[in-house]
């Protein structure tokens, strides 16, 4: 079971600062690309805007959406489209998830979490056997989340665990309770399954 460092009441600027420091270390540690996963939903985008103001060589950054909704990239629900609009002007590469994609080792897996304990698009109903066998999975959430009722494509738990470190941004009391229970092994939600397998440092911003 992972031990997580919890950083309480972090502002977007604090999180961006932490991310910039981790990316800076990764850029120093390799001459090749630095690979990260970035969550979708609503939480990450103001943090990314802050991150992009930091002095980093974004041209060596390869951004993998942790998941996406199966919609065109110019659809308002597309995580990839939003990531592309933010990161590409800074010189970073943004990958389009397909089930054919070869998934790399990530320097950082940055994740959000839904109040139902889903991470990326691995929902509580996602068959655990399936997400143990593949790196990328296409699925239909059951039930479809009303805020984004679309089929999904998602990195799986083994793919996310193939990373140097993991960072969560968990905002709101409901999510925090679910996360704390997952960390304590008191539920079996996707977030708990990830935490149970994490050997690397886990940092959680609330
Ligand atoms: O559907 C999704 O939900 C989660 C949480 O999103 P948020 O809007 O509550 O921050 C997100 O982490 C995931 O990547 C996304 O596609």
TrEMBL record:
Its EC number is 3.1.1.31. Residues 15-86, 101-197 form the Glucosamine/galactosamine-6-phosphate isomerase domain. One of its GO terms (molecular function) is 6-phosphogluconolactonase activity. InterPro entries: 6PGL, Glc/Gal-6P_isomerase, NagB/RpiA_transferase-like. It holds the Pfam family Glucosamine_iso. Gene3D superfamilies: 3.40.50.1360. It is an enzyme of class 3 (hydrolase). Keywords: Hydrolase. It comes from the Bacteria. This is 6-phosphogluconolactonase. It comes from Qipengyuania xiapuensis. The lineage of its organism: Bacteria, Pseudomonadati, Pseudomonadota, Alphaproteobacteria, Sphingomonadales.
